[in-house]
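Q: For a teaching handout, I want to show students what a protein-ligand complex looks like in token form. Below are the inputs, and the small molecule is iron/sulfur cluster. Please produce the holo structure.
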Amino acid sequence: MSFKVTKTIDREANRLVKNYPEKRSASLMVLHAIQEEFGYISKEAEVWAAEKLGLKPINIHELVTFYPMLREHDPGKTVVRVCRTLSCALAGSHKLHGHICDKLGLDKNGHGLQRTRDGKFGVEFAECLASCGTGPVMMCNDDFYEAVSNEASEEILKKYDA
Amino acid sequence: MPSEYKLVLRHVDEAGYTNDIKCYQKHGGYKTMKKVFKLKAKKTKDGTVTPQEVIRKEVLTSGLRGRGGAGFSAGMKWNFVNRKSGKPIYLLCNADESEPGTFKDRQIIHKDPHQLIEGMVIACYANDINLAYIYIRGEFPEGAKILNRAIQEARDAGYLGEGICGTKFNLEIHVHRGAGAYICGEETSLIESLEGKRPYPRIKPPYFPAALGLYMCPTIVNNVETLCNVRHVMEMGGETYAALGTPGNTGTRIVSLSGQVKRPGYYEIEVGKATLGDLIHGEEFGQGLLPGRKLQAIIPGGSSSKVFKAGESFKIKAKDKQGKDVEEKLELLDIPYDFDTLMKCGSMSGSSAIIVIDDSVDIVEALGNLSDFYAHESCGQCTPCREGSLWMAKALKRMRSGQARKADADYLKHIAHNIQGRTICAFGEACAWPVLSFVDKFRDDFVKKGAEDEASLANQQKEEASN
Ligand SMILES: Cc1cc2nc3c(=O)[nH]c(=O)nc-3n(C[C@H](O)[C@H](O)[C@H](O)COP(=O)(O)O)c2cc1C
Ligand code: SF4
Ligand code: FES
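A: Here is the structure, written as tokens, with iron/sulfur cluster included.
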């Protein structure tokens, strides 16, 4: 969805700013709010956020380009993040990632986030998601799944295939 | 056989225990906070001791050490705070939990958030703090919601806000979400992130949080589990708490156990009262390796800690019954899981996350996986770390794709040596230590891989020449 200043986002930003003694501190939370509503953070959104926080657009852009979770482009409707790190790898997370890529017609050796053509899914590896005892783990947007078998991943993907 | 000792996790996973304030109060929640508010100033021969000083003294007496990674005395950290600056003091709860292998704070946040809030209220009261933040990693969206709800419940109950429980004490706690960067767990990076800047760690000195933290004000950064323990220290008293665990390594600790054991999970133990062997093989803990497998390696304290090789033994300095210094031989699996012994054995308990690696695993592959993590997570501020972490990951990638060289073992160590001790923050060590320890302890595996690939390359070249 392309960015526009809505009442909701404006109100949310104003509320967040109040949580900090200095406006700039709200940057990350405002960016989360923008991404939640619009799916990603466009240039226009950066400019708006900067203005809201009394900053220059570069102060916002340098955050969007630093933090892995913040997106400059539409990552797809459902972002699937499969944990890549050691404990999950030992539990088979790379096979899981490969399986999901196969099912969605993506390249399992591809680098970074890959989006399906219909824009329904974006798939990427994530670093340790702090549930290493129940690997392999993955997230679909905000939802968290543990001990995901290849078969289970197909059922999970179906839930988001709308 | 040692068993679990549940203090922080006492109610977590108990049937019927929910994460709302009613349930917490039914189980004695917020009683300790109210007790603390009733503490009176004490007159001693050296003058008057304020209630705040009484609490700080208890925490110091308890011997509580930070559960986030460095294991530094919580009471001492609080004592370092500059109270004369005239500036506000802040408390930041480190809920970034991103050290690979670690998944203990997640349990507290999701299942017993009020315990953390009670701990924070007490810590803030003890340190004259009126504004605190919980910095939670971005990948815990559910956890952030749960904490926000718990904070609202606590506010409605009059435990947060102005004039808490009829005292003159005011406190606000806000949840601040990270966005997927491991480095934000480092305390000065966390502070920069909270200030809305790129989270580049600050150099110490001079930027010790106790003096120049958030907004250049005195700041305390404590881990989730540490702050929960503050509540228990005040509930039972510092001395009683110090009787738990072992001398110098007091209280309980939640150990995250993952990798190739039958029963991975989070287990709370008295510090030092269970050994690595107990945790991996014990009936109440990991229940041993998978069928038919042998132990190859143990990462004892999160991915940044130095690896142990199966069968290793250590000579450590200890005191005998008469208090004389003696040398003691310790087998790997007999190492008591505490702060000091693991350090004496050349590693650390770090974030208390054990990763078990069995003989089915290619050790070069395992190190490669970790090095990819560090290459991805370096903040890029210092050249040795930014470049070195990437070089190590690249060399390991090459080694894993059939192009290893015998010289790679030394090459990796050379890079790692040029990182550690030459960077702004401890991430430099965190990325160098796995490489140094893996290559040192499993040198044969690295050299063998190099020899094999060199031989097959030589063969290939011979064939090409003869064609
Ligand atoms: C690279 C790096 C990552 C860290 N990540 C975390 C973390 O995720 N959680 C945490 O509590 N401490 C982490 N720490 C340790 C913190 O810097 C800090 O020591 C700790 O939060 C202090 O709390 P404590 O004294 O209660 O342990 C990290 C340190 C470094 C160098
Ligand atoms: S050591 Fe690495 S992570 Fe730490 S400040 Fe330097 S570049 Fe950043
Ligand atoms: S390694 Fe996957 S959650 Fe920690």
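A: Two things your students might notice: The pocket of flavin mononucleotide (ligand 1) is lined by residues B 66-70, 72, 77, 94, 96-99, 183, 185-187, 221-223, 226, 425-427, 430 (CB under 6 Å). Chain B has three domains: 21-242, 252-358, 363-454.
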